[in-house]
Design a protein that fits this description.
Blueprint lengths: L14 H8 L4 E2 L1 E5 L5 E5 L2 E5 L4 E7 L3 H9 L1 E6 L5 H8 L15 E3 L6 E3 L4 E13 L2 E13 L8 E3 L2 E3 L5
Antiparallel strand pairs: 1-11, 2-3, 2-6, 4-5, 5-10, 6-9, 7-8, 9-10, 11-12
């Protein structure tokens, strides 16, 4: 049933039209990571703060992504908020040809999170470790709401990596 309660849901907007509109929404860039049997990393810009009390964040992950299965299996994830100089890191964790499992972190600076053991990437502006508190159906994605177990910021107040118009950008640059 549709949201109006009559018949099957029909998209009101085409996928290409929505994609084009969303190109106009600037986002920060993160890398989500998991540890354990499902050690994995993935670049993501569908990330947001939800609540300060209790401390909650969300990330949206395609059901077909390896990260989806990893988060479901582990029940925890970490987030590294990337700095402007980390475009190469964002591209690396978006590349499906990179090694899988723990090997994908070889050659990438990181440390294990104290609460989850998930990789926290060196050079990031901030890090969070989360336990999945809720998982919601979001069409072809799942919206994972994470209870924040730990949070830290880098000592240096650097500029963030931004994604806008289908490409990585720098603040103040067109």
């Amino acid at each position: 049933m549709s949201a109006r309660g009559v018949g099957p849901a029909t998209p009101l907007v085409s996928r290409p039209a929505l994609r084009e509109v969303m190109r106009g929404f600037a986002t920060g860039v993160t890398v989500l990571t998991t540890a354990g049997r499902s050690t994995h990393g993935m670049t993501a810009n569908a990330f947001s703060s939800v609540s300060l009390t209790p401390p909650l964040v969300l990330c949206c992950v395609a059901r077909t992504a390896l990260m989806h299965a990893a988060i479901v299996e582990e029940g925890e994830f970490a987030v590294s908020v990337l700095a402007q100089a980390q475009e190469h890191v964002a591209r690396y964790f978006a590349d499906r040809a990179r090694p899988q499992g723990a090997a994908q972190f070889d050659g990438v600076g990181w440390r294990p999170g104290e609460r989850t053991g998930a990789p926290l990437l060196a050079g990031a502006l901030a890090w969070l470790e989360c336990r999945v508190a809720h998982a919601y159906d979001g069409g072809d994605h799942t919206v994972f709401v994470g209870e924040v177990l730990s949070a830290a910021c880098a000592a240096d107040d650097g500029d963030p990596l931004v994604f806008f118009g289908g490409r990585y950008r720098k603040l103040g640059a067109s």
